[in-house]
């Protein structure tokens, strides 16, 4: 069987850290196992908000990597405030009531002058570069991965110019993603976003999404085929770790202002007051970027003595913390717009062997996955008494040395299994 070449256009790639890099890094790792040659097109000089040099070693030596220069406004904006541009670039937007004048300016500029996002200046030079490469190398299939959704505009132009088969992969939604409403969009900018989203969804041959809710949302915009391929876990997650001696509640990843679960902090304070030894065992472990609002709330509840704020760590260190923490916290914004979000870390959480406390809006897509796999308990933001009861139950199991997850049916979420699904889709009728 002749090896098939696939051109993958993505922005996040090692040494980029954070969740955005993992999906296609892992697909590329396993594509050669199924007779597919991955050709990955990435920016030569990107502005990544998070760096994880250790991920460079995970890039498949069978992948062909193409690079082309990019101009990014974040590079210029960082001269005014490196910290603010880094946070906005990574999706951490200050609470609206606490936004400074400079915050508001940055958000307005980001939302209204750079549509769909600040990587839009990469579109035209990329199309010119890739049009020549595709023709010279007889490539007939391309994949674009967003966000940033500017990359779908590259796919759009290549489809129009060359007629290649185009798969548009949406790791997150476009106009319904949580932070979209925070960008201070004008009516013109909002209509422009929706028009581009409509054009992409109706020009791509197939749309790939990570959740059923996003599929349903997109079905109202396009009649093109939409396929759900979730994120997953990789085999390195099987490394065993000695458990923390404290009753650690660990949140791994960006802890945004809007994800601040007051009823969790209230429950912990009540357990501290009601159970004499609870405070001697409790540790709240935060790993990754944490908003100032979350830290202030934890302080206001008097929980600072139990806080261990570790900041960003490498992906391998994050996996180690997932496996040794007593309980893992998965928290999503309480909004209709976030029901479709299935955080990539969920799948790594599920294979860690540790029970998950998941908090999100009622009807969240990830609630169903957690329930089916028996990997934890889901709570919506009105479930305080249930949350407190489960926390107490987990604590008692911790004291008995019996706290663990009893997961079932995880194999379908392995990166290799998901790559097999992807290959079947990419090579269908070709």
Number of helices: 16
Distance between the termini: 13 Å
Proportion of residues in helical segments: 25-40%
Radius of gyration: 22 Å
Main β-sheet, in a few words?
Answer: 7 strands, parallel
* Average of per-residue pLDDT values: 89
In the predicted model, the low-confidence regions spanning at least 5 consecutive residues are 77-82, 84-92
Q: What's the helix-strand series?
A: EHEEHHHHEHEHEHEEHHEHEHEHEHEHH
Structural class by sheet pairing and helices: alpha/beta
Q: Widest sheet: strand order? A: 3-2-1-4-5-6-7
Shape call: globular
Q: Could you give the count of β-strands?
A: 13
Strand percentage: 15-25%
Task: Describe this structure in a few short sentences.
This protein has 16 helices and 13 strands. The protein has 430 residues and is α/β, with parallel strands linked by helices.
Describe this structure as you would to a colleague.
By secondary structure, the chain is an alpha/beta fold. It is 38% helix and 16% strand. It has helices at residues 22-30, 73-77, 82-89, 101-112, 123-136, 150-162, 187-203, 212-219, 262-274, 278-281, 292-300, 315-324, 345-350, 365-373, 384-399, 415-426; strands at 4-9, 36-43, 64-68, 141-146, 165-170, 206-209, 226-228, 247-252, 282-287, 307-311, 327-331, 356-359, 376-379. The strands form 2 sheets. The protein has a 7-stranded parallel sheet, covered by helices on one side. The protein has a 6-stranded parallel sheet with strand order 10-9-8-11-12-13, sandwiched between helices. Helix 6 (150-162) packs across helix 7. The longest helix has 17 residues, at 187-203. It is globular. The chain starts with a strand and ends with a helix. Mean pLDDT is 89; it is low at 77-82 and 84-92.
């Amino acid at each position: 069987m002749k090896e098939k070449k696939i051109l993958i256009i993505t922005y996040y790639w090692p040494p980029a850290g954070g969740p955005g890099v993992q999906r296609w890094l892992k697909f590329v790792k396993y594509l050669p196992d199924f007779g597919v040659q991955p050709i990955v097109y990435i920016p030569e000089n990107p502005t990544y908000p998070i760096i994880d040099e250790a991920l460079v070693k995970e890039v498949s030596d069978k992948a062909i990597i193409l690079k082309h220069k990019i101009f990014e406004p974040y590079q210029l904006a960082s001269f005014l405030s490196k910290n603010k541009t880094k946070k906005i670039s990574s999706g951490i937007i200050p609470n609206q009531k606490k936004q400074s004048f400079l915050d508001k300016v940055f958000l307005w500029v980001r939302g209204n002058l750079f549509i769909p996002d600040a990587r839009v200046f990469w579109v035209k030079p990329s199309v010119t570069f890739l049009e020549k490469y595709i023709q010279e190398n007889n490539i007939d299939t391309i994949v674009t991965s967003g966000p940033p959704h500017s990359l779908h505009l590259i796919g759009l132009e290549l489809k129009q110019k060359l007629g290649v088969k185009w798969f548009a992969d949406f790791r997150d939604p476009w106009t319904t993603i949580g932070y979209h409403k925070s960008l201070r969009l004008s009516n013109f900018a909002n209509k422009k976003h929706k028009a581009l989203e409509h054009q992409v969804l109706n020009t791509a041959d197939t749309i790939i999404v990570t959740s059923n809710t996003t599929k349903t949302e997109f079905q109202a915009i396009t009649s093109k085929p939409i396929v759900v391929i979730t994120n997953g876990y990789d085999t390195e997650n099987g490394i065993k770790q000695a458990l923390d001696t404290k009753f650690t509640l660990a949140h791994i990843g960006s802890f945004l202002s809007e994800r601040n679960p007051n009823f969790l902090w209230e429950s912990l304070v009540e357990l501290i007051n009601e159970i004499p030894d609870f405070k001697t065992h409790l540790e709240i472990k935060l790993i990754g970027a944490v908003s100032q609002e979350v830290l202030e709330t934890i302080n206001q509840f008097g929980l600072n003595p139990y806080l261990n704020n570790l900041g960003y760590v490498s992906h391998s260190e994050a996996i180690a913390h997932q496996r040794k923490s007593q309980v893992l916290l998965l928290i999503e914004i309480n909004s209709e717009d976030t029901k479709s979000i299935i955080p990539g870390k969920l799948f790594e959480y599920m294979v860690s062997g540790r029970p998950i406390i998941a908090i999100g809006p009622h009807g969240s897509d990830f609630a169903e996955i957690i329930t089916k796999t028996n990997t934890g308990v889901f709570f919506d933001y009105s479930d305080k008494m249930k949350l407190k009861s489960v926390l107490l139950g987990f604590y008692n199991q911790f004291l008995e040395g019996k706290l663990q997850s009893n997961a079932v049916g995880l194999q379908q979420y392995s990166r290799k299994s998901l790559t097999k699904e992807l290959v079947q889709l990419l090579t269908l009728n070709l």
